[in-house]
Amino acid sequence: MSKSIFYHAGCPVCVSAEEDIINLIGASKVEVVHLGEKKTRIPEAEKAGVKSVPALVTPNGNALHINFGASIEDIK
Amino acid sequence: MSKSIFYHAGCPVCVSAEEDIINLIGASKVEVVHLGEKKTRIPEAEKAGVKSVPALVTPNGNALHINFGASIEDIK
What we know:
Two copies of one chain form a homodimer. By secondary structure, chain A is an alpha+beta fold. Chain A is about 30% helix and about 35% strand. Chain A has a four-stranded mixed beta sheet with strand order 2-1-3-4. The model of chain A has no long low-confidence stretch (mean pLDDT about 95). The interface of A and B includes residues 20, 25, 58 and 65 of A.
């Protein structure tokens, strides 16, 4: 099984959700990407359907928006 | 570790998120509760901070709202 990708932007909501997701799924199964620091990966996240962070893109390509920290537009 | 609880209301967004969450976390680690059919459990969900479904309440008590299907108020 390939990894999920957790996109965030360092916001408090993001950090809390990241801890929860890693506890639930396991750190080895999640790649964590800080879109504020890696803006080159924003297009990839948008293509996967990510509209806001924190969000988890599953191995089958579904975007799960988890609570709400910031919109992708605000990170750009 | 105790189980997470996945609250939903049978909506399409809920069903899709449920499949994703169970694939990610494992069915044995998630209790699935249909709040439309078990309205007696709405107060428990609200107490955990659930404002809309689908939502996952983690073993440590955090409410993670996953995408948006329906608000708790609409289910009542």
